[in-house]
Amino acid sequence: DGGITQSPKYLFRKEGQNVTLSCEQNLNHDAMYWYRQDPGQGLRLIYYSQIVNDFQKGDIAEGYSVSREKKESFPLTVTSAQKNPTAFYLCASTTGTGRNEKLYFGSGTQLSVL
Amino acid sequence: EDQVTQSPEALRLQEGESSSLNCSYTVSGLRGLFWYRQDPGKGPEFLFTLYSAGEEKEKERLKATLTKKESFLHITAPKPEDSATYLCAGRTGSGNQFYFGTGTSLTVIP
Q1: What is the residue-level pLDDT of chain A in tens, covering all 114 positions?
Q2: How many helices and strands (H and E) does chain A possess?
Q3: Region label for B21, one of left (φ > 0), alpha (ψ between -120 and 50) or beta (otherwise)
Q4: Which helix (H) or strand (E) holds B73?
Q5: A107 vs A8, A9, A23, A110, CA distance in Å?
Q6: Which residues in chain A have Cβ-Cβ distances shorter than 8 Å to B87?
Q7: What angle do CA B88, B92, B98 make, to 5 degrees?
Q8: Helix (H) or strand (E) holding B98
């Protein structure tokens, strides 16, 4: 079945540590996104990528980094510069064209600080 | 500035008590207004896409409508299993960005 796989489901970060969240899709989608969700808040865009080897900062990119070396993969690194990383992280993708442009979401990664 | 605002933040309904959720938007060149359902600890699940004012879509007890400034999600005779957070998002005409509201947390009491 086609879909988006995020791993791990739960992740713990020690102070000063970088951690990487995985996002893989087999939907053949061009565009991929990373969102952060805090309790009681909406989704805030961290980074997005329209094509391989290209990505743009979203509204809250500071303290995060991404890469897009393959069409199906869009990993997110939460760096030590991100002082308040505890949140629920969602990866999403879309075709980017046509009427069927909805976002497809993964099941999320809950990141907590030890 | 592109923005999506949802109200109310939280809504408690008795089973069978119909109501509506509101989504107001200012999104440049809107290319789709999307509704999602999200259960705790899970990714959002797609419900509807609306493209033009006057458009309506239905699925079971849910009906979504769109005007030039806002969208409504009408819930008819809700059941406890409809309890979830409902998110709306507007997609910009240029670029490829989706702007999300903060969601409405719906609780349906048996």
Answers
A1: 679 999 999 999 998 899 999 999 999 999 999 999 998 788 999 999 999 999 999 999 999 999 999 999 999 999 999 989 999 999 999 986 665 588 999 999 999 988
A2: 0, 11
A3: beta
A4: strand B70-75
A5: 10, 8, 10, 10
A6: 42-43
A7: 45
A8: strand B98-100
Nearest CA to CA, how far is A81 from chain B (Å)?
25
Nearest to B103 by CA among B32, B26, B16, B7: B7
d(CA A22, CA A76): 7
pLDDT of residue B94: 74
Per the DSSP assignment, residues forming a β-bridge with A26 are none
B94 within 8 A of B28, measured Cβ to Cβ: yes
Q: How many helices (H) and strands (E) does chain B have?
A: 0, 11
pLDDT of residue A1: 65
Would you state the pLDDT for residue B9? 96
Contact A104 B46 (CB under 8 A): yes
SS3 label, residue B82: helix
**Residues 24 to 83 of B: which have CB under 8 A from any A CB?**
31-32, 34, 36, 41-46, 49, 51
